[in-house]
C-alpha cells in the first residue's frame, strides 16, 4: 500500500514569523485531508530542509512525495534548485517516487483568488 506525503516547499527566512502563513496553509490542508501527511520544508534558513524531511518521511514508510513549491513564480529556486535537490533525493531514496508540481503562483485558481483579494481592498 502506498503511503503519500504532500510537502509544501518554501524558501525560508531568518525571521521565524515569516513561516506563519505557510504553517496556516499546512493546517488548512491537513484539516481538509486529515488522512494525508502534510509537511513543510524549506530551501534555506529554516528547518526542516527538504533532504532532512525526506529522511524522516522515508523512516515513516512514505513511498510517494508530492512537492508543492509555495512560490509566486518559477524563478531559479523552482526551476533549478528544487529539481536538483529532488534528483539527489531520488538517488538516495529509490523507493520513494517524487512529483514536483507547478509553483502555487503559477496556478490559475490561485491567481484568480489573489486578483479577487486585490480588488477587494478597494472597498
From TrEMBL:
Pfam families: CbiX
Keywords of this entry: Lyase, Metal-binding
Family annotation (Gene3D superfamilies): 3.40.50.1400
KW Cell wall biogenesis/degradation (keyword) present: no
Protein name: Sirohydrochlorin chelatase
Source organism: Herminiimonas glaciei
